[in-house]
Amino acid sequence: MGSVQNEAKVAIITGGTSGIGFALAQHLHAKGWRVAIVGRRADLGAQKASYLDPLAETAAFEQCDVASYSAQAAMFKNVWARWGRLDLLIANAGSVDSGSWDNFRRRGAAVDDLPPEPDTTCTDAHLKGLIFPEYGAVEAGVIHWVRVNAPLLKRKEKITINTVMMGPAITPVMPGFAKAFLPEQLVLPATIIKAYDLFIDDDDNKRTGETVETAHDQLFWYEMPEHKAGKLNVRNMLVYEPWFAVMYGEKSGLEDALQEAPEGNAQDTGRVEEFGVGMM
């Protein structure tokens, strides 16, 4: 491959063999990106990658179960070995519930008839599968994780992280999906692509810690809500460098981090209330 090809950006797309994932793979590939299509089905993945590039120079399939840390680690190593860089991870893989924690169908079971172990495939893919590469969590958790960690990751690693909140879209994940929604309640594929492009096309890496929601043909930005306690809780949002250095071996370097204990702290004023103090 020539030098121009070597300069092309590389994206890993989990759950990339169908639906939204493959649509994003097609979109990025058409824009000149090299894409690693990640999924569990080797036959389908190889077919989709070959559709984009039969020579496997700009599109390749990587078999991986995102619920497995070792599988994800091997996948990342393989992509790096193939193209020598990584510019974008779209953690798109997921599934619907395979079981239930609630066991509503077993209300009449005897007390000693314990239910089977819940199938946590959904949790493993959505939550653990995202946490393994240290890029986020899931649903409400991912939004908060992104907001909290975005400044630090950008400062330390020059990595930007953002969230696309996905509305209902027709994909192969559920049969008869369209029957459960009115047409105007379904997110259009073009809207999803538009949301991702807000971050993908941010060549200067200015956007980070942001969340955008998709809804039919519109996008809505999620702003960080204010604390109900106002200035009383401002301190809770700031990194305390002495603690950070102890935990991570170096300071955070964040502009708003507290370098030392604030004057008039609780210990200085004698206003210390600790759980367990004075208890018998």
Write the layout of secondary structure elements.
Blueprint: H1 3-6, E1 10-14, H2 19-30, E2 34-39, H3 42-52, E3 59-63, H4 69-83, E4 88-91, H5 121-131, H6 140-157, E5 163-165, H7 189-200, E6 211-215, E7 218-222, H8 241-248, H9 266-269
Parallel strand pairs: 1-2, 1-4, 2-3, 5-6
Antiparallel strand pairs: 6-7
Pfam family, one: adh_short
Family: Belongs to the short-chain dehydrogenases/reductases (SDR) family.
Keywords: Oxidoreductase
Describe the 3D structure.
This protein has 280 residues and is of the alpha/beta class. The chain has 2 domains: 3-222, Rossmann fold (3-Layer(aba) Sandwich), CATH 3.40.50.720; 231-269, no CATH class. The protein contains 9 helices and 7 strands. It has helices spanning 3-6, 19-30, 42-52, 69-83, 121-131, 140-157, 189-200, 241-248, 266-269; strands at 10-14, 34-39, 59-63, 88-91, 163-165, 211-215, 218-222. It has a 4-stranded parallel beta sheet with strand order 3-2-1-4, sandwiched between helices. A 3-stranded mixed beta sheet has the order 5-6-7, sandwiched between helices. Helix 2 (19-30) crosses helix 7. The longest helix is centred in the middle third of the chain and has 18 residues, at 140-157.
